[in-house]
Amino acid sequence: MEEVDRILIHSLRQAGTDIDEDVQSVKQFTSELIVEAVVRCLRVIDPAVGNGLSHSLPPGMSARFRLGMSLAQACQDVGFKGEIGYQTFLYSNEPEIRSLFMFLVERLPRESAEASDQPAGKSVLLQRAIAAQIKAQLSVPWLPPTCRLPVHRKTQSSGPCHSFHAQPLSLPCSLKVSSRKQPKEVQEYWRNYLLPVTAQPSQPASVPASLLENHISELSAAQEWESEWNSQGLLSRLTPEEYRSRKKARLQKRIEEQLRTAAQPRPDTHGATRSTSDLAELLQSFGGASTGGDVLTKGTRFTHTEKFTFTQEPEKAVQQMAAAASALPSSQQSEEDLKAQQEAELSALQQQLQQLSVQMEEVGGGIKQLTVSIQQVTDELQTREVTNAERENSVKIKRQTIDLLPDAENNLLKLQSLVESSSKRVVQLASQWEKHRVPLIDEHRRLKELCSNRESESSRKLSEIKDLHDKIRQSAEEAKKKESLYKQLLTEFETLSKDVSRSAYTIRILEIVGNIKKQKEEITKILSDTKDLQKEINGLTGKLDRTFAVTDELVFKDAKKDESVRKSYKYLAALHENCTQLIQTIEDTGTIMREIRDLEEQIETENGKRTVSNLEKILEDYKAIRQENSALAAKIREG
Amino acid sequence: MATPELMLSLGLIEKDVNADTLWVWCYPSIDADLREVMLRKCCLTLDNQVLHTFVFGQFCRTWYYITTVEVQEPTVLKKVTHFSIVVTAKDFNPEKYAAFSRVLCRTYMKHGSPVKMMEGYIAVLTKGICQSDENGSFLIKDYDVRKALLAGSLKDVVSQFGMETIILYTALMLKKRVVVYHPRIEALLEFTRALPCLVWHRKDWSILHPFVHLENDELENLKVCTGYVAGFVDPEVKDRSDLFDVFVNLPDSEITVSQNAKEAMSMGKLHKEIGNFIVQAAEDADRSDAQVIKDISVKTKEILSNLMSLADHADNSKLTLECLKQGHYPPATENFLFHLAAAEQLLKI
Predict the structure, then answer these.
(1) Taking the domain B7-147, which CATH number applies?
(2) Is the pTM of this model over 0.95?
(3) Considering only Cβ atoms within 10 Å of each terminal Cβ, which end of chain B, N or C, has fewer?
């Protein structure tokens, strides 16, 4: 019971009850302490129930009685099944109180225990650390600047705070540009002229921010590349460099295509030619410049378009401005002169325009005619060429025929025989060729099959490799997670108060469990002993009965003949009866002994219930109530 | 007409169990460019197992006829799943070569050796006849080129497009570029071969490219020609405005004239007249396709003789724009006649 009590007292202390150090067991609990402990527990379990109750016993007897009643009710509401009433609290007895406390302690919520079971990530750890730091800083009182010690200056002065302002840094070794591929000049620049990173940003305060930014961008780029390589690159069966260059070419082609489709000339839109030429220029510059550049560096496209828009426009603008400036008339001339001059100029220009448009039309008609005639001529040329070739062929044949004409009949026969023989020869040759061709084709097919088999094998292996990669990554992640969890737990373990009670409890519990096991073994041993004894007894009784029956019969037979035997028969019967009585008596003694033991136990439990002291207390309380009642009655009478 | 030396070569493409399509044999020779084009056309290289038993087309003035057969029953060809027989020739006569290649196919299926096939080929080349094992023999005389040219049905074209047929007529008369799109090759072949009948007086079937892929070599070959009728199965051709003046979307029965050909293709009263004439001629149930073609041809010749009459006889019977202007035609007609004169090579240069 001692162990149980200590655990109970520990839990009650945690729930907020103020228990003296010298209180070691439930037996020592006073009524006040019991009430306080129960109320505190109830407040934790169910705040709505517990908050309506006071945790100290009131002085008035009737008030105490009421508190006891409401406490009992609250306990039943929470779910306590045992016997409970005001007397449990006011006239306590040890077992009842213990069972009540055990119930209440079990119902106490265990959020702290559950929370520590869940694994927390790095961010949680960080947040916790931040929270702890803030808490520590908040606990330090604010001091006016003059009173601050160096310790406080660090956290309370606003001096070292800077906004997070990152600037691009130039680094010789980075993921984007490997140092080996760079030209000599760049390397020399790095070696001799590049400032250290700490000197690169305009303000020294932005050095850490810039470094962090730089690092993060490189990290994310590396991760992106890794994931892409694992998902697509590996399957393409290329080396990383090849894959990169292929991707670059693909992107370039796509962009070019997009621009080309956008630049398709539309006859109805004015100025389309201008935009197309500009776009063509852009395309050219894009194609030229990007061959040297790195496609992976973001912004290549944008820098080019930027260059394009900002370099072309100013030049044109300057030209236009110059033209406009020269056309401006000098402001010194009079206005009328100016007007007349303008009109004259206008009419002259209009005339010019008309002339020009007429000319344009004429020339346009001419062009149209010419294009049509060009079409005709090319068409004619083509047909002529075709017919020419045909004619040449026919001329050749005819010439041959003419050569053969003089001896027509003979030649005809000769030709026929020639045709026949050569066709036979050709067929023969073909069948010979077949002898070579068929094995070659078969060989080709066989090799192809082998090749495709190999290919499928390799793709299978590739997928296996990919799976393996995935697994490796997963395992690495898991390992990382576990490691962080381990670290977290380790820190938690270190921060934990070195409360030995817990380990002591576990050890005790283990000991108790061991003891219980031992006891159980002993009990089973005793039980089996008892069983054996019972068996033996039964066997003996049976033996006795049988022996008696046999002896009885034998002796009874002889008793009829012999007088002395009759006597001995009588003795036998008497002996048997006496023995039975003896056994009966022994059994009775056993039962009585057991009853005595039961009664003794009952007496002990009754003693434990502090009946005498409780009765005295009840008597006193009764007297107090009566006094109160009489006082009240007197007051009424006086009133 | 049908002289045997029109045939140029005979080839064999096989697809084997490794799904590998291969040129396995040819006689006498086929150059590498044409071989590549044939591989594309024979539909064995495609993964989808749609089999086109007979396709034909033109590449570089050479006509090709491809018959594809699936090897089903166990034969001597163990590792072969499909094979195509390619016949190239100078002349356009799908029916003749379809029949001939069927005979060759059966021979090859039976013997599994191209030697027998070649014997047949040489027999046709030298004697104009090929003995088939079954079903009698193949006689080259049975297939007249005129029949082949008349095989396309103009009536079907007119029944599908009605009055819009005049656009096709004008485009062909002016030697414009006509592109026809249909996802099915067979429909494409059937439709496109009828179109040159609209300009029967030229009897020029070399403008016909019934089956073209959007590949550079074929497009280059196409661009050399001034006017053509080209069939495509790839719907992307619709966006290639550089390839056509007139685009025919066959499944949707739509004809579009491209922007830069609009001016040359502007139509007037004359076109309406001709259009009505064509529709009437084609709708007459009693008239055969050949008669319809003849009617249109007569009408065309009428126009041409009109045009000729305007020409300056002193000047080698050639036309100039001034001569045309003397005729006082409406501008659309004048424009048409001018372009027609160019197409018929009647312009004075």
Answers:
(1) 3.30.450
(2) no
(3) N
